[in-house]
C-alpha cells in the first residue's frame, strides 16, 4: 500500500514485514493509517511518541488450547484467542467470535477496529476482540456448553469487570454468553459484569439485542437527513445477513417507514417485494435456528436464490450489509451503484472491500463505515457495564433513547472531523480521525507505558 507521508509509510511497511500472512489485519490497519496522514502532518507528537507503531501493536495477545468432549465422547480441540489491543481510554472491550474462519489475523483486524469504534461511542472503553475457530453450527446445546466452559476456564485468567469485558459476535449470542458467564462466576466466586450481552435476569441490558441493528438505522437516518435532506421513509432497502444485526436493522428500518425486500445467510438470499415479514424470519432464525431458504417455503410471493452475491443485484435505495467481512467486492459495489442506490450503511464489520468503497465514493453515494454505523452494539454494552456498576436496570425506552443520541453524536463527530481536515463528506476518514484523536491524546498523556 502506498502513502504520501513517509512516517506512515514506514509504519505500514513494518507491519507488512512482521505480519505478511495477516491479510485482514493489514487491510484494516492500512485503511486507518491512510486516513490519519493529514492528522500526522499536523501533529508532530504522533511520530515523536511512536503512537502509530504502538497503536498497531496489541498490548497483549493471548492464544490458548480449548479441549472439550463431544456427545460421542470424543475429545475435540479448538484454538481460543483474546487480543487486548488498547486500554488507553478504558478496559478492553469487544466481542467473541466463534466461527471456523477465525484466526489471529481476523481477531487482530476486529480488535484494531474496535479501538476506534469504542472511542467514537463517547464511552470509556478500550479495544479488544477474541474468539475461536469452534463452529457452533450443528452442535448440541450440551456440546456448546462444554466448549464455552472450557473456553472460559482459560479466558477467566485474563479478564475482569475493570480489565477486559468481552461480549458476543458472530456465533456468540445469549446462549453462549450465559454459559461463559456461569463458568466465570463459578471459577472466580463473584457476580460481576464481566461479560455484556447477558440474559435480562442476570444483569443484561434491555435493548442490547436490538442495539447494533437499531443503531445502524439511527446513524443512517441522521446521515440521510444531514447530507441529503432525506430519510428512510418510503425507501426500498436490501439487508444482507439474517442474524442479530440484520434482523434488528430490518425491524428499525421498517419502523422508520422503509420496505426491506431482501435478506440472506451464507447459503443464499430471499427476495420479498411485499416487504420482509420479520415474524417469520425471527421464528426461523431465532427460535428454530433454521436457514433463510425456509422463508420462501413459508411466505407466498417470495423467492429464494442459491449463493449470496446475487443479493447486491436486487434493486434498492439503501443497502445495509450486515453479514460478514468483505461481502461486497468491486463488482457487487458496481451493481449497487447501477441500481441507483443513494446510501450504503455498514452493519457488519468491514463488509466492503477497499475497492468497493472507492466505487461508492466515486459515485457520490453516501457511505458510512462500520466502525461508526455499527457502534450501537458496543455502545449499549457500555451502558450495560454502567448499569452493572450501579446495580440498576434502565427501561428499554431509556436505553433506546441513549442509543439514538449516541449514534447521532457519532455521525456528527465523523462528519465534523472530515470537515476539519478538508475531506468534507468523507465519513470513512472522519470516523478514523475522530476515533483516533481521543485515544492518541490519552496515550500521550499517560506516557510511554505500553
Ligand atoms: P450472526 O451470527 O447473528 O449472523 C450473521 C449472519 O450473517 C448469519 O445470517 C450468517 O449466515 C450470515 N453470514 C455469515 N457469513 C456469510 C457470508 N459469507 N455470506 C453471506 N452471509 C453470511 O452475527 P451478527 O448479526 O451478530 O454479526 C454480523 C456482523 O455484524 C459481523 O460482522 C459482526 O462482527 C458485526 N457486528 C455485530 C455486532 C452485534 O452486536 N451482534 C456488533 C457490531 C458488529 P449463516 O447462518 O449461514 O452463517
Would you tell me the overall average pLDDT? 97
Number of helices: 17
Low-confidence stretches: none
Radius of gyration: 21 Å
Share of helix, binned: 40-55%
The separation of the N and C termini measures: 27 Å
What structural category characterises the helix and strand content?
alpha/beta
Query: How would you describe the oligomerization state of the chains in this entry?
Result: single chain
Q: Based on CA inertia axes, which overall geometry fits?
A: globular
Provide the spatial order of strands within the biggest beta sheet: 9-8-7-6-10-11-12
Query: In total, how many beta strands?
Result: 12
Main sheet, how many strands, which sense, barrel? 7 strands, mixed
- Along the chain, the helix and strand elements come as HHHHEEEHEHEHHEHEEHHEEHEHEHHHH
Amino acid at each position: 500500500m502506498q502513502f504520501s507521508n513517509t512516517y506512515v509509510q514506514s509504519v505500514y511497511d513494518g507491519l507488512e514485514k512482521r505480519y505478511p500472512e495477516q491479510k485482514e489485519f493489514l487491510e484494516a490497519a492500512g485503511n486507518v493509517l491512510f486516513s490519519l496522514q493529514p492528522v500526522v502532518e499536523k501533529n508532530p507528537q504522533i511520530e515523536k511518541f511512536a503512537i502509530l507503531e504502538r497503536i498497531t501493536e496489541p498490548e497483549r495477545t493471548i492464544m490458548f488450547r480449548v479441549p472439550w468432549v463431544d456427545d460421542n465422547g470424543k475429545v475435540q480441540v479448538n484454538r481460543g484467542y483474546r487480543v487486548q489491543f488498547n486500554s488507553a481510554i478504558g478496559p478492553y472491550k469487544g466481542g467473541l467470535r466463534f466461527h471456523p474462519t477465525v484466526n489471529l489475523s481476523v481477531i487482530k483486524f476486529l480488535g484494531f477496529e474496535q479501538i476506534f469504534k469504542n472511542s467514537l461511542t463517547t464511552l470509556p472503553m478500550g479495544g479488544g476482540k477474541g474468539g475461536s475457530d469452534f463452529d457452533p453450527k450443528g452442535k448440541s446445546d450440551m456440546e456448546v456448553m462444554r466448549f464455552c466452559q472450557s473456553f472460559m476456564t482459560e479466558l477467566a485468567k485474563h479478564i475482569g469487570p475493570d480489565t477486559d469485558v468481552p461480549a458476543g459476535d458472530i456465533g456468540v449470542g445469549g446462549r453462549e454468553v450465559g454459559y461463559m458467564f456461569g463458568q466465570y462466576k463459578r471459577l472466580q466466586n463473584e457476580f460481576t459484569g464481566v461479560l455484556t450481552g447477558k440474559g435480562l435476569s442476570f444483569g443484561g441490558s434491555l435493548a442490547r439485542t436490538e442495539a447494533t441493528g437499531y443503531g445502524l438505522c439511527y446513524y443512517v437516518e441522521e446521515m440521510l437527513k444531514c447530507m441529503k435532506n432525506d430519510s428512510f421513509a418510503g425507501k426500498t432497502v436490501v439487508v444482507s445477513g439474517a442474524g442479530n444485526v440484520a434482523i434488528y436493522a430490518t425491524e428499525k428500518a421498517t419502523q422508520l417507514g422503509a420496505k426491506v425486500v431482501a435478506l440472506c445467510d451464507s447459503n443464499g438470499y430471499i427476495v420479498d417485494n411485499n416487504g420482509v415479514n420479520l415474524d417469520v424470519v425471527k421464528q426461523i432464525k431465532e427460535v428454530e435456528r433454521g436457514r433463510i431458504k425456509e422463508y420462501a417455503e413459508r411466505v407466498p410471493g417470495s423467492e429464494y436464490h442459491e449463493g449470496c452475491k446475487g443479493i447486491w443485484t436486487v434493486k434498492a435505495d439503501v443497502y445495509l450489509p450486515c453479514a460478514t467481512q468483505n461481502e461486497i467486492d468491486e463488482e457487487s459495489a458496481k451493481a449497487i451503484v447501477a441500481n441507483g442506490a443513494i446510501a450504503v450503511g455498514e452493519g457488519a464489520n468491514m463488509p466492503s472491500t477497499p475497492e468497493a468503497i472507492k466505487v461508492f465514493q466515486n459515485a457520490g453515494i453516501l457511505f458510512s463505515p462500520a466502525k461508526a454505523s455499527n457502534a450501537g452494539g458496543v455502545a449499549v454494552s457500555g451502558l450495560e457495564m454502567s448499569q452493572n456498576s450501579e446495580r440498576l436496570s434502565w427501561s428499554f425506552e431509556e436505553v433506546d433513547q441513549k442509543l439514538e443520541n449516541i449514534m447521532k453524536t457519532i455521525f456528527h463527530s465523523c462528519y465534523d472531523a472530515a470537515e476539519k481536515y478538508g475531506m468534507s463528506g468523507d465519513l470513512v476518514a472522519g470516523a478514523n480521525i475522530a476515533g483516533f484523536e481521543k485515544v492518541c491524546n490519552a496515550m500521550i498523556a499517560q506516557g510511554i507505558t505500553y
